[in-house]
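Recap from last week: sequence in, structure out.
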Amino acid sequence: MPKRKEIHVVPNGDRGGWDAKKNNAERASKHFDKKDEAMQWSKERAKKDGAELIPHKRDGKIQNPNSYGNDPNPPKDKKH
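Predicted structure tokens:
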């Protein structure tokens, strides 16, 4: 089974700001000063790559993930 593509938006404790990182990557794909900039870039990248966008809060907790690819757990409500 192929690994799920993920892009995480995480706080950068060393430099400040926010990083966009692929799952299990040591280095960030891109660094941003503001979270909304990181989210905008990461959303476009996730759409292009068919990946899961997983934003994190400052404390590291996951906040409202969104799938732009083959979602392994799609919503059961097909009307919305």
